[in-house]
Amino acid sequence: MSTLPIDVWSDIACPWCYIGKRNLDAALVLLQDSNAVDSNAVDSNAVSVDFHSYLLAPDTPPETDAPEIDFLVQSKGMPADQVRQMFAHVTQVAADAGLHYDFDIARHANTRKAHELLHYAKSVGRQADMAERLFAAHFTEGKRLGDVNELTDLAAEIGLDRDDVENALRTGTYANVVDADLDQASAYGISGVPFFVIDGRYGISGAQPPEVLAQAIGRVLSERAET
């Protein structure tokens, strides 16, 4: 049986997307336990995960470097207290997923180059590792994800070739792949992220709990095994 594809549309600057990634990771672990899924035990190695680009703020100038709270207050017209309450809520949900968010240092940025880096990482088999590093850099460390130098440093941290990465980012090698992802998201009617597409047939919206994702993936794997 061929590998089951799970395509995930997300934005590195989306707090729910990092939670969604962690929940998907946990769901794949649950698939090893037949008691966690309404089917026989399933080998999660039969699943492949690809991350696709979605831009929550595509009009953000590339040179933008501002606190996330200031961006939402100034560009979205949201009251500061409302933004803080929203951040507090998602920070607690993230903590429940084992993540630490620090919105006091998180910087708003145009994430297009970060998405190009994700596609470079995919080309060398390290996309999941790069996604994890970028999410942590944004939500925990306050890194500037619109800055090519910082992105190159982050890529080098996980062992990617610094010169190759910098060249790919500065020349826009993967810009067309990002655009293709955005076009596909539009074709699917995706208006919010994270959004999971299982086997190219089933869509799941939002940072669903691991159990929900595991059950959905398990059902599709079982369907494929029966055909």
Describe the overall structure:
It is a single chain. The chain is α+β, with helices and mostly antiparallel strands and 227 residues long. The protein has one domain (4-226): Glutaredoxin, CATH 3.40.30.10. The protein is built from 9 helices and 6 strands. A 4-stranded mixed sheet has the order 2-1-5-6. Strands 3-4 form a two-stranded antiparallel sheet. α1 runs parallel beside α3 (80-96), α4 packs antiparallel against α5 and α6 runs antiparallel to α7. It is globular and about 55 Å long.
Task: Give a concise summary.
With 227 residues, the chain is an alpha+beta fold.
Properties at a glance:
Glutaredoxin, 9 helices, 227 residues
CATH class: Alpha Beta
The SSE order reads EHEEHHEHHHHHEEH
What's the average pLDDT? 93
Question: What do we call the CATH homologous superfamily?
Answer: Glutaredoxin
CA-atom Rg in angstroms? 18 Å
Strand neighbour order, sheet with most strands: 2-1-5-6
Largest sheet: 4 strands, mixed
Helix- and strand-based class?
alpha+beta
Low-confidence stretches: none
What is the CATH fold-level name?
A: Glutaredoxin
CA distance, first residue to last residue: 10 Å
Tell me the CATH architecture. 3-Layer(aba) Sandwich
> What is the beta-strand fraction?
5-15%
Number of helices: 9
- For the secondary structure, the number of strands is 6
